[in-house]
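Weekly modeling sync, notes
Attendees: S.R. (lead), two postdocs, one rotation student

Agenda item 3: backlog of single-chain predictions. S.R. asked that every request posted to the team notebook include the full sequence so nobody has to chase files. The rotation student volunteered to paste the first one in as an example of the format we agreed on. Action items at the bottom.

Example entry:
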Amino acid sequence: QVQLQESGPGLVKPSQTLSLTCTVSGGSITTNAYIWSWVRQAPGKGLEWVSSMKTDIRNPYYAESVKGRFTISTDNAKNTLYLQMNSLKSEDTAVYYCARGLYYPDVWGQGTLVTVSS
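Predicted structure, as returned to the notebook:
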């Protein structure tokens, strides 16, 4: 059974950088060319899709709110998904989840809190 584990929670100031890691266990990140995604949930708000990519095509997609600031990537040898977040803003404060799939992810991590505050 595939499991996802995020790491990299943190408190950072606006304009700073933070990187999140999602380790995939119980299966290969390249199996069946799944789409892998990052989704976030700000305090008191609903889920917001952030970014997705396929390991075989490596053509990432980004929400407009993070385009140009966030970068999604994978290290297939390490079975790991990453989210590099630059120029962070207070509105990026949220619990960040990695997930397998795009429209209806079927596997989710437990989430990691990112707080952007001065």
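Discussion: group reviewed the output briefly. Residues 40 and 48 are 5 Å apart (CA to CA).
Action items: rotation student to repeat for the remaining queue; S.R. to check formatting next week.
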